[in-house]
Amino acid sequence: MKDAAPQTIYLRDYAPPAFLIDDVQLTFKLAPSATRVLSRIHFRPNPDAKDSVFFLHGENLTLIRTAINGNTITPEVTDEGLTCTVPDGPFVFEAEVEIDPAANTSLDGLYMSNGMYCTQCEAEGFRKITYYPDRPDVMATFKVRIESELPVLLSNGNPVAQDDGWAEWSDPWPKPAYLFALVAGDLVNHPDSFTTMSGRDVALNIWVRPGDEGKCAFGMEALKKSMKWDEEVYGREYDLDLFNIVAVDDFNMGAMENKGLNIFNAAAVLASPETATDANFERIEAIIAHEYFHNWTGNRITCRDWFQLCLKEGLTVFRDQQFTGDMRGHAVKRIDDAIALRAHQFREDAGPLAHPVRPESFVEINNFYTMTVYEKGAEIIGMLRRLVGAGDYKKALDLYFARHDGDAATIEDWLAVFTDATGRDLTQFARWYSQAGTPKVTVRDEYSNGTYRLHLSQSTPPTPGQPHKEPLVIPIAVGLLDEGGTEVVKTTLLELTEAAETFTFDDLSGKPIASIQRDFSAPVILDYPQSNKDLAFLLAHDTDPFNKWDAGRRLAQDVLLRMVRDDAAPDAAYLDGLATVLRDDSYDPAFRACVLLLPSEEDTATALVDAGQTPDPMAIYHAHEALKLLLAQQLQDSLPRLYADMTVTGAYSPDAVATGKRSLGNAILSLMSKLDGGKQASAQYTDADNMTQQLAALAALLKIGKGQPELAAFETQWQNDRLVMDKWFGLQVSCAAPRLAATTAANLTAHPAFDLKNPNRFRAVFGALKSNTAGFHDPSGAGYDLLADWLIKLDPINPQTTARVSTSFDTWKRYDPDRQAKMRGALQRIAATPHLSRDTTEMVTRILG
Ligand code: 0A1
Ligand code: ZN
């Protein structure tokens, strides 16, 4: 680890590359501690360049030999790269370097995981493999030769030839270095095939460690569904003879879209009924789709520079959300996405880490793979589609693919296709990309003489570096209901473009009840004080499923706030409304499960902060527990029947209907266990033939302070399955009583199966500690100290994951002086650690503000 003086990179400094590349040949002579990488690169000067300095990125490389046009040269080498004088015109650059994959615990570049070689090059990992212009606007075709005794040797593109000890690959599609991939290992495959819309056969494989073959079938089906969906919905066909997916145990993120060779965190692809939950299955389907969709939105059209990351990520997330909606139902998908956006992206946007969807500067680009870039980026695409309509959206996308195929493009290019395809001026809309912070839309209404007026105003709070905000274009979908529950104005899209605007609805026979921001039409916070009576009415009558759910959510949040603040009893309107929806079989179980789900404790903390108060995590915890108990008591008579109704018979299937039933059944089980001492949960645990039922039963038991025998049995049963053991680690911490959470986490770090080098295991323990809000914020500060200790230990091993998990501290300014001091102390202790990585330094500096 070197003490790099942190250098800030600015979007405004973008300059085209001085040299372009026609093709690259790479030879890898694999050896765990001394891999040789030979490169042969055809460069030519870029006619559009502003300078002619020849610079190649390179980090942690031992340079053996360099040559230009066959003549050995001695370049100038620094910690960051290599430079030398080059001839006029095109030339061939060759280098031989040595690298040490076995020592690479950062999981960035070429590294080893359980004896397998694996790469991760996004965003800037290729420079740890060889000297190269490691920037996304330099695209080239790659030919790769791998020499190793390992049986399976893979790279991008199509296979060319192979024999014992070597294999050659050729990728005909020009790509930036971040999409390069290599895998070598003792792997087995789950094969299949897909015939594309033009009749080409594509071989498909999921490669896994021996023993995991039985966990590939679902991922393979998801891949084929994704390929078909992209043809049908976006007209996009796959473009190689082969599509490989590899599962790897040690991986920093979910998965990576390398051309023709997607590399997946094992947790994001491997699934069997016995070992994966319904939520895991749904996530796997979405991630497989996401990575596959990148083949067009990311690979065929890539990003000019890393500031444009949302160009590929926002669009691809939007596409995977559409796909999941089509596969599993749009209403529940929209609710799930809004819950996640509000919980995580709004939090980011409201704190010290707020940044625009297209940032203006960064120190370490890996710190900008954020909820804002991904999820708010996707919301922007959704708003665009809503504003121009589905037909024009399709036209614009067709133009995007036709105009930019093969390009490294920008957000300006993206918006220009919409303007050109639809004639719409998007100058103001473009502010969504440059302005950080979550807009608040305030709604006030009045009614007189048949006319209903909606007064909408918008404001966005200051964020770091952006004290003043301009008005945005905000699509607000509105419907109006009369007192009898009839929809008198169907969903209408209002376009709020000014700081304040009034919208008028005429010819009404009485004051309507408004349903605002239907389908969560914009990623904004709505300030519309509706009475509990109106909210209960919307919960009962709204025709928009999102707002129907949201009305219940707002009621629940109001109940919780009043319980925390005044120890008040829950409002009858909420309890009655909830009971009615729960018992109504005309709503599908998945939707009813959403309605039963309470806001999280973190959500309640945010609601208190929004109301100008300092949250007390313990008081919030007690209010949530009290409300759950009250719900259990109130619904007591209906629970056993509802639970029985949700029984799924026959072989396990992770389809949407069965998943919805189990989701509602397990929410009910959790309530029942508060009254029956865990009797039903114990029975479910014993009978369970799938992980969803087994884990939900265990969670229900742990939540009421029971389940120790089951926990021990679970460990014995699953000790050899890493992914299931991650659940075992996480559940104990997330279900621990607040006072015990830090101790539980600390004890687990001493467990022989705790592995600091495995990001899944680290996140299982410390992600769960963060999710146990009252436990993490225990007044003793034990949670803060423990997390800081382990981040300091992890940083020299894996800076990316350390930086990511350090964001657990980003709400520190919300809390009371005592907690603030303890959190700040923990952050300062991390910041003061000698040789702290650039990743973590940037994060803790920004969080400290
Ligand atoms: N592009 C991938 C995510 C990803 C990003 C960075 C990584 O390493 C720093 C790894 C994966 C995606 O969007 O799925
Ligand atoms: Zn992505």
Describe the structure.
The structure is a single chain. The protein is α+β, with helices and mostly antiparallel strands and 849 residues long. Among the domains are: 9-270, Immunoglobulin-like, CATH 2.60.40.1730; 302-434, Neutral Protease Domain 2 (Neutral Protease, domain 2, Orthogonal Bundle), CATH 1.10.390.10; 719-849, Peptidase M1, alanyl aminopeptidase, C-terminal domain (Zincin-like fold), CATH 1.25.50.10. The strands form eight sheets. The chain has an eight-stranded mixed β-sheet, with no helix packed on it. A five-stranded mixed β-sheet has the order 17-18-19-21-20, with helices on one face. The chain has a four-stranded antiparallel β-sheet with strand order 10-11-16-13, with no helix packed on it. α13 (601-610) packs across α14 (617-634), α16 runs parallel beside α18 and α26 (817-831) runs antiparallel to α27 (838-848). The two termini are 25 Å apart. One of its GO terms (molecular function) is alanyl aminopeptidase activity. InterPro entries: Aminopeptidase_N-like_N, Aminopeptidase_N-like_N_sf, PepN_Ig-like_sf, Peptidase_M1, Peptidase_M1_dom, Peptidase_M1_pepN, Peptidase_M1_pepN_C, Peptidase_M1_pepN_C_sf. Residues 82-179 form the Aminopeptidase N-like N-terminal domain.
